[in-house]
Amino acid sequence: MIDLYTAATPNGHKISIALEELELPYTLHALELSKNEQKQPWFLAINPNGRIPAIVDRAADNFAVFESGAILVYLAEKTGRLMPADPKGRSLVMQWLMFQMGGIGPMMGQANVFFRYFPEKIQPAIDRYQGESKRLFRVLDGHLQAHEYLAGDYSIADIANWAWVRTHNWSGVPTDDLPHLTRWLATVGERPAVKRGIQLPPSQLDRTASEEKAQQFAAEARKMLETGQSREQGV
């Protein structure tokens, strides 16, 4: 049994999706970020960085794993699924996983801060992070032109990137001109385990909503920025 400590953010949904795909038994613990539950001493004992998600593998002497990418690798290696065992296949998955961890996540996260949360509109910052997010989307689109998934078969690399890219409306970055990325988003999104995973936990903040609806959420989201949570939690 695995304890999953999480919240309804892209990074959090990476892990709930993976657990659903792998059909591993787990107990979901949804933390209230606005109440700083992730900063409490009991959680810092699991993740010293005070961020979600984190897991505790009870079947492995209560082994704790934090950082979403590291959790995905741990779960894949634990089960022998969603990542090839051969060095080249594993490397391909790790390359696209690191692409998300080092590029997609940070750039979209910063786009979210300046486009949605920050009380002042600093247009050069918005342009910078939306532009870089779009550049990374084009990289994905170009690769997906000749590949159904990012690294051969469906893998943790797809889970990690999809959990973020699906929220492109919230970041203010359109994908209408990226047909291969759009196809991949739809294909992954139709997987039953993915549909379940993005509802665990459910979010009141619909990051895939239209622009009009997205603006309705912005005021509440700014409160999270004011308390220092939005960027830190990858929302």
Overall description:
With 235 residues, the chain is α+β, with helices and mostly antiparallel strands. It has 2 domains: 2-79, Glutaredoxin (3-Layer(aba) Sandwich), CATH 3.40.30; 87-227, Glutathione S-transferase Yfyf (Class Pi), Chain A, domain 2, CATH 1.20.1050.10. The protein has helices at residues 10-22, 41-44, 68-79, 87-117, 123-144, 156-165, 168-171, 179-189, 192-197, 211-226, 230-233; strands at 2-6, 26-30, 54-57, 63-66. Strands 2-1-3-4 form a 4-stranded mixed beta sheet, with helices on one face. The chain is globular and about 50 Å long. Pfam families: GST_C, GST_N. Belongs to the GST superfamily.
CATH topology of the largest domain: Glutathione S-transferase Yfyf (Class Pi), Chain A, domain 2
**What radius of gyration results from the CA coordinates?**
17 Å
For the record, the count of structural domains works out to: 2
The H/E string reads EHEHEEHHHHHHHHH
Q: Give the number of helices.
A: 11
Could you tell me the number of beta strands? Answer: 4
* Overall outline: globular
Which spans of ≥5 residues are poorly predicted at pLDDT below 50? 229-235
**Structural class given helices, strands, pairing?**
alpha+beta
Largest sheet: 4 strands, mixed
The side-by-side strand order for the widest beta sheet comes to: 2-1-3-4
Keywords: Transferase
Biased composition (Basic and acidic residues): 208-225
GO molecular function, one term: transferase activity
Pfam family, one: GST_C
In short:
The protein is an alpha+beta fold. It has helices at residues 10-22, 41-44, 68-79, 87-117, 123-144, 156-165, 168-171, 179-189, 192-197, 211-226, 230-233, and strands at 2-6, 26-30, 54-57, 63-66.
